[in-house]
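Q: My collaborator sent me two sequences in one message, no labels, and asked for predicted structures for both. Can we handle them in order? The first one she listed is below.
A: Yes, handling them in the order given. First sequence, followed by its structure tokens:
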Amino acid sequence: MNRSYYIAAATLAVALVASTSRATTVINIDFGLQGDHPGGVVSAPYTGAGAAFDPNGGTTWNPVIVVDNNAFQGAPGEFGFWTADVTKPNLLNSQGAATSIGVTLTADAANGTGAFGILQGSPNLGAVATNAVDLMRDYVIGFNVPQKVELTGFAPNTQVDLYLYGAGDTSNRDTLFTVVDANGSHSATTTGTITGDGNNPVTHTLTLGGDYVVLPAVVADGTGKITISYFHGAGSNEAPFNGLQAVFGVLPGDVNGDNLVNMADYQLIRSNFQATGATRALGDLTGPQGGNVGDGVVDFFDFAQWQQHFPSATGAFDVVPEPTGIALAAIAMGGVVQLRRRQRAAARA
């Protein structure tokens, strides 16, 4: 075999063990109200997993609490209006470390910004997602005009995936979320039909489209700010906003969440290719829309993202060969050893 074969084999061996790394940051925010219902708890800080992909497995959430005027306290829960902006700087990431990210809930006394929390023991509590009760049981509310939440402290032009939670305690609560950035307008609406109500609650876990929506690849402006608008949909006069997850620094191509792009990720895509109802952990990295939010199917969009971000020693591989695991790497490394032996023999001669 000639020298070029060994060089190619060595290059492939390096590619097989190489990886690209980056740290993902997840900021979790849980909106709630102060809550002083005489009947018991209506709002509680949430700790746990959300719908967003978090390779760190973090469970820390930032409670952002409004002070309402206790306009109503009854069997379903507590409702009131709040009239003062709430700002919380230096939010914790999902692992509990302080960051530069901050959030501001903007009050609108003229048009009304409200809050509601479901009373412990109320039948209405059965209408919220069972795997995130304390996230979904309480929320701020927009009424007559679009209201806003501002996220600040990102590096300018940071790309952020937003998971926005907007479900009330009855099925006639829809929330239209909109963000306008340098690439245009991003919007999506929660349907509200997943929850049922106190008389006929629908038992369910967090559901895309019902409890939350995703706005992928939103870009922070030149000052590092993202403004989220929330407004009621066509079938509702209230727009609940339970909380959000902001995910940035996601490493494209990383399937298993180890913050590396390598052959282990390829094997997961290969093993689950054409699977439907898939999660990121199975290889659903992206979809036709691009970005780092999957479409529920493991397909060529996912493979293409992995291939684009898988490192090679020369950058010359347009198609990464199908791996045969350790055996292929061993063959390649064997070629390197044989080349070195021939070089040493030639030097002695």
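Q: And the one she listed second?
A: Here it is, processed independently of the first:
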Amino acid sequence: MNYLQQSEETTEPLNTAEKTEISITPESPEVFRIILPPGRCTKRLLNISDVFLSLFVITPLVVAHWKGTWAFIERHPEQFPPWMSFLFGCTLHTSFVLIKELLHMEFTAPNDGYKSVKKIISQNIIVKIYTYLFSLGCNLNWQGGWAALQVVFGTELKGAVIPSAICLVLLLALKGIRNLAAPPVFVALDNKDIAFSFPTRFRVQVSQILN
């Protein structure tokens, strides 16, 4: 009996999981290929190319667009008074915040169904119009706020230093000093997946606010 029990124990099949278990170590060539960083020369070349593209191509085009819109607003002060321009820009941005999720679901959310050429073209047109209106809202905010500050504080040195110092202190208190690091070295590609997305202070979804 002891012999039979011993033979049964020795002939018991091994666990399949133990036979097929594979341990991946950092020395494995597949893992090494995944974690291998790009070469220094390639990385430096891409960084330099990105900086030159930002400074000498994208930035002049963006600045020219902003300057043209800004000059048009300044040439028509009757239609664009400072405070009205500033408030209209704020209203436009607030509207974009409230409807950005709806626009994303309608025009850029993944869809497994078939999309016609007409729908694709209409989506691209809507995205471009939205981007231009967003730019117009930014110009109205900046130009209107700038002109309003000149009306309140004047154009002398004291009128420039006081609001700058106050705003800098407020940004430090709100932990928003990084917002001063604006373009030119900032490049965003036209991607429909993030066309209506932009960061907010608390990153709260609009549906959570309205419910």
